[in-house]
Amino acid sequence: MFRRASGAISARWRRWKTSLPAAYRSPIRPGRSAAVAHSKPHFRMIWLLAAAIAIGSCTPGGATIAPAHLEPTPRPVTSESPGLPPTPRASIPASDVIFHNAVILTMDDALPTASAIHIVGDSIASVGEDSAILAEAGPQTRIVDLGGLTLMPGFIDSHAHLFHVASSFGKDDRTAQEEALRFGITSIGELWSDETLVRHLQELDAAGGLRLRTSIYLAPFVDGCGNIYEQDWYRAFAPGADLGSRLRVGGIKLYTDGGSCNAPAVSFEYPAGAGHGDLYFSQSELNQIVTDFHRQGYQLAIHAIGDRGIDQALEAIAAAQAAEPREVRHRIEHAAVIRPDQMPRFDTESVVAVMFGSYPTCSLLQRDGSFQYYTPDDYLTWEWPMRSLLENAPQGHYAYHSDAYGVRPLNPFENLYGLVTRQEVAEDGTICRPPAALAAGAVTVDQALRAMTLEGAYALGQEDDLGSLAPGKLADLIVLSADPTRVTPDGLRDLQVRMTMLGGGVVYCAPGYEAICPPAAALPSPQPSPQTPLIFRDEFDGSLDPGWSWTNEAPAAWSLTATPGWLRIALSQGGFLTTTPSNVLLRPAPPGDFDLTTTLRASPSRNFEFAGLIVTFADGRVLQFGRAYCDVPGVCTGGGYYFDNLKGGATTGSNFALPGFAGSQYVLRLEKRGTTYTAYYLTVDGQPVAAGSHTVAGDPQSVGLLAAQAPAPGPVAEFDFFEIKAP
């Protein structure tokens, strides 16, 4: 059990406080009210999720590495982690599109339902009935008949850890974001970040790899285990500042009690003599901390699981507002054990409650040890009291969160199902059904959907732009397989996303539903200069241009529709040093000197996996340059750029392995000058870096793309374009 003398904390806090910066502006813009709807049935029974909650780094000595879970312990995620989300090309706005013949759930009180919506550029132009909206169509407007499908705002997960701990759960930046978009999540709050993660996400956004709108919460002072840091790096990131096209500063993350490690602080006695849990500060200390950040204009996201932790958070927020009233919208994260007398204060102190959606009913019923701390039966009515909170704080704000990865599922339909039924599907597929008293605490579908959209935007301070479908708001929306307000409660978990749109551009299109996914607006055609005349360029927009041929084609392993505007090739298990790889895409090499260029997204992580450019010769020689992974001692550098000269099952010369690649999409260039071939990669700011050169006599036979050398199926590579220019 964590313990720290309060005097030591106070002394360190006084020293740290002297380095605080001058106040910044408030990050919250005045906006429309978004009060949560409420209902009358009384919540009777909920329970405590106390282990592995609110991920935060926990390490002695003030270091800021990956967080410590009770179960499991994640590996660190650093800026060197390969993160490869699709680039902005896949989300270029469709410019002018009308969706009609739809069931539209707007989340806008002024017009709750509609049948048509008009999108121009990245924003919503109008919402209404078919006849009125279709009358707005011009000659360039694309008309999409949704055939009765349901359209609604994208889900907003206001507290997640997609980038922070993704690698601990078999994800990277690309695959984590792809999963979120497939689930219809368009915005997240990334609720723990050290400086390394902030810089990494800035690089990711600058490289076009940040596909979700991300509000990042900085953790410069305390971690989830109560370790106190003396850091001022956060001063470079002003409250609410835009750090990129899809990245902004959300606020500061603080902790009042245990949950990530140690025990949540409660007013009752835990079973088996486990005490009352752990508070990390005295009330006066927390008041001082919160007030100083509040005066600078930062939104505070305060982890408080137990009712004693919630007491401290509410008191500290009230003290800060009394010292300096501001429109800074503070949040309490998790709010898992709330006493009835605390609930009205969420109204009076204007605090946003950010609470779980998915309900761990199976663990509650089975007491299977999934969580370290369970609440005595006499206090179960205090746990996760969502409906009671809505009744007792009717003007307050309640947003859902998943806390994924590692705590509860990311899938919003599992969260919706849990909010509405309090049921959970066990690993074997059986349904864990709560007792009647527990089921009575469920909220309505309308309340749950609001918590997952407009209230999520409110928690992030972005309700003016996100969370509902109204003219002037950003066109972040999803198309669903059915209307969640009309399916049975058990059917909620079976809902599927047919399309996800972010800022007017399609970022996910379910296979078989391409007809409802408007293509990106046409890009200007490249204008070759006299110095670099264009020989050939394929944008991979729906079909391959003439002149390509496949070697060992496996049609099911490549696609031009999985990500619009990109060619996706699954890495085959062959390679030019062993068996011939599948799906080698080739075209005749031009005569004379030339430059080959492509933009690549790939994440090699197993020995010898490769994706990139190739040049072949009549004698069987192959030059290949791209992203690869190799851990052969003395030869390779792990993940990085590799330039190989291969023939007859052997390599010639150096493989020119370069580690330390930056960004999350990779621009590769291979230049031929006479018999010398030089490979370059481009940095985020477009500067070329030479990887090495090989000399090969004789004219090349073909040029193209390769994704191969995988030890087992699974990974994919995606190419944005392929270009040949004369030097």
CATH structural architecture of the largest domain:
Alpha-Beta Barrel
Q: CA-to-CA gap between the ends? A: 67 Å
Give the CATH H-level superfamily of the largest domain: Metal-dependent hydrolases
Poorly predicted runs of 5 or more residues? 1-90, 522-529
CATH class of the largest domain: Alpha Beta
> How would you write the strand order of the largest sheet?
8-9-10-11-12-13-14-15
Radius of gyration: 27 Å
Helix content: 10-25%
Q: Strand share of the residues?
A: 25-35%
CATH topology of the largest domain: TIM Barrel
In DSSP terms (H or I, runs of 4 or more residues), the helix count works out at: 13
Backbone shape:
globular
The total count of strands amounts to 35
Structural class: alpha+beta
Main beta-sheet annotation: 8 strands, parallel
